[in-house]
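Intended use. Records such as the Aminopyrimidine aminohydrolase entry shown here are meant for training and evaluating sequence-to-structure methods. They are not intended to support clinical decisions.
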Amino acid sequence: MNYQDLISYCQQDWNDYTEHDFVNQLAMSSLNKHAYLHYLKQDFLFLKHYARAYALAIFKSTTLEEMREPLPSLTALLETEMSHHVEYCSTWGLTEADMEGEPEDFGTVSYTRYVLDTGMAGDRTDLFVALAPCAIGYAVIGKRLANWQQTVLEGNPYRSWVELYSGEDYQNSVDETIRRLNKMLKEVPLHSQRGQRLCEIFKTATRMEVAFWQQGMNAAK
């Protein structure tokens, strides 16, 4: 197996995720501000659980090499990405205290607990497959929007979002994520019970991503 097999298994759900109205409107500069603010606050809460998931990956590891592997991602999340997120949100009038005090929306609860539950019940591969739609999907979205004819950059308040996820740094980091995932999947036959289980995990997490975009759109109504 490889990561493309996971995407092909749930192609329609993947398209719904990577071509959602939320990201299309964001690129066209027409996204409702309240939808974006809701997304920023929920994404802060999501990232905290994302860090917990990487810590769980260390717990689930059996060798020192495996334990070291998630550490750079966990360190980057806690020391860099979260700080950048808080700094960026301050430009939208949101403080760290605001986001810490924000109730988790249903989509956020469902998604993050699904990932953590999958990791607790399964092994490292189950966990990384559940995490994969987030990282890989944002790279696909970023690259698509950077080349989409309807994307507006000049005067777009969401321009930095498009540039972040289409940028070389993020794209390169996801290439490494894909390399690690493919290494885990390499010995798994696609049509085996194990392979189909991993496909279902990826599909469910992808559907959770769709719901995450949609809860932002719903918040603007």
